[in-house]
Amino acid sequence: MYKGQRLFNDILAGQISWLLPFCVIALAFAAFMRVAHMRRGFMRLRLVSAPDDGPSGAAWLVWGGWLAVHYVVFSFSSGTFHPYYTTAMAPAVAALCGMGAVVMWQAYRRSRVWAWVLPLAVAVTGVWSFVVLRRTPDWAPWLAWVVLGATLVAVVVLVVARVRAQVTARIAALALAATVVAGLAGPAAYAVTPLQSQVNGTNPTAGPSSGGMGGFGRPGGMPGGGQFPGGGPGQPGTGNRQNAEPGTADSGVTGRGGRSGFMGRGGPGGGVSDAMTKYLVANQGKATWLVAVNSAQQASGLILSTGKPVIAMGGFTGSDPAMTVERLQSLVSSGQLRYVMAGSEGGGPGRGNTEVTTWVQANCTAVDGQDGLYDCAT
């Protein structure tokens, strides 16, 4: 898929794109009307409007600029990209939808020429919601058709009322209700899905899986098949419907298969089994730190499950060589640290800090029955 369409692909569409068509139409309509009025001399250039004039020019500039900047950055950036980054666009989407609804409703009631902008915006938004929902036909299959039906009702009511020039309170209420269902039923349904299943704390997303390895909210998979950085049992995703490779910028998510992450294999701690967790707690003794592990993703799970302090030697993902041999020796000799994970279970400290790994394996004793765990106090 073309990079400019990344926010509409199978992975990201359900996270942020639902109301983007409405926002674009609202922005284009507001900009056109202001330029047209100023050119005809009907409106002076100003940044603050009277209360009954609708949103000010400054408001359109701020929220429109916010949305445009994020759209460009998220669509064309390369490198690590997580779907939850798109939540930064939510305030702009909400503001533009609110302002756009006011402006288009005013035009609908007051102008014969521009009355059709509101039905058009409702139709495009509802149809796009239908498309997104149909990408996961096995998940709430009825919802897509409810949205499509509500869209049809809203558009027909708006058009008929405008043609007859009779926009009564009852008609307005019916059109409003149908429009709300058409525009918000899809994103609302996606928004509540995290309450129904376990969510990956590192890469939270909304909605069901749209293909690929791993279901929504489960370690090891992203909607559309992308791989969670730091998640999954070392198995890459299977791609998405846009034929983008998992872990590439075009796929909408960067993956790093093969690294144990938060809530990875073996239970709490990401790559740390329940048996190892119990062993560490039982044998910590007077040491300050429960254990030193590869990454903050591993450490976070252990901290949450035990309430004990844990050292993350390699930073967030384990790729930062923050720990040094001298620092590790100091922690061990002072009795602050006893156990270090440096084997197949926990990965090498620092992921690339071979000096630390070599020192641990040469000077510490591998714990029997606890794969990858070393006792540096013996």
TrEMBL record:
Gene Ontology, cellular component aspect: plasma membrane
Subcellular location: Cell membrane
A GO molecular-function annotation: pentosyltransferase activity
Domain (Putative mannosyltransferase YkcA/B-like C-terminal) ranges: 276-363
Domain of life: Bacteria
Transmembrane residue ranges: 16-36, 57-76, 88-106, 113-133, 139-161, 173-192
GO terms, biological process: lipopolysaccharide biosynthetic process; response to iron(III) ion
Disordered: annotated span: 197-269
InterPro entries named among the record's database cross-references: LipidA_mod_glycosyltrf_83, YkcA/B-like_C
Keywords associated with the record: Cell membrane, Glycosyltransferase, Membrane, Transferase, Transmembrane, Transmembrane helix
Topology within the bilayer: Multi-pass membrane protein
Coiled-coil intervals, chain numbering: none
PANTHER family per UniProt: MANNOSYLTRANSFERASE YKCB-RELATED, UNDECAPRENYL PHOSPHATE-ALPHA-4-AMINO-4-DEOXY-L-ARABINOSE ARABINOSYL TRANSFERASE
Name this polypeptide is given: Putative mannosyltransferase YkcA/B-like C-terminal domain-containing protein
Organism in which the protein naturally occurs: Nonomuraea zeae
Lineage: Bacteria, Bacillati, Actinomycetota, Actinomycetes, Streptosporangiales
